[in-house]
Design a protein that fits this description.
Layout (H helix, E strand, L loop, with lengths): L1 E7 L5 H12 L4 E7 L7 H9 L22 E4 L2 H6 L9 E4 L12 H27 L2
Helix pairs in contact: 1-4, 2-4
Length: 140
């Protein structure tokens, strides 16, 4: 069983959506974890936009990367530039490190419609990335 860590700054939004989709698209191929270099709790917009796609992440917790010390990672996926640039080195001799800077919908201000559109954009980008990752890295 492979171990996959999805890493973001606060483990509240993008990493949580990726965690949800990675679990959804793979069937017992990997243990999926998400963490941040800080913890900000779950972003309600992320929970809501995932629920619209039939994925419930409301029971996820916002975890600090240090909580997973000692796990041997197969993949470490950073989903924002800030985490990639500021994360402490995670020793894992076999980990493939993948980076994709996803748009941050939590920074968007405006009407509820504008915010919803931002979360939808981020969710769809993350969904496509996770689908492709599972197909290309975990299934083969």
């Amino acid at each position: 069983m492979k171990n996959v860590l999805v890493l973001c700054t606060g483990n509240s939004c993008r990493s949580q959506m990726a965690h949800g989709y990675l679990n959804y698209f793979q069937d017992s191929l990997a243990n999926i974890y998400s963490a941040g270099i800080e913890t900000h709790g779950l972003n309600p917009g992320a929970v809501s936009i995932m629920k619209e796609d039939g994925i419930d992440i409301s029971s996820h917790t916002s975890n600090h990367v240090d909580e997973y010390e000692g796990i041997e990672w197969d993949y470490i996926i950073t989903v924002c530039d800030h985490a990639k640039e500021n994360c402490p080195f995670i020793p894992s001799k076999n980990a493939e490190r993948i980076h994709h800077n996803f748009f941050d919908p939590s920074k968007v201000t405006g009407t509820e419609e504008v915010k919803h559109t931002a979360f939808l954009k981020a969710r769809n980008e993350i969904k496509e990335f996770c689908h492709d990752f599972v197909k290309e890295e975990l299934v083969n």
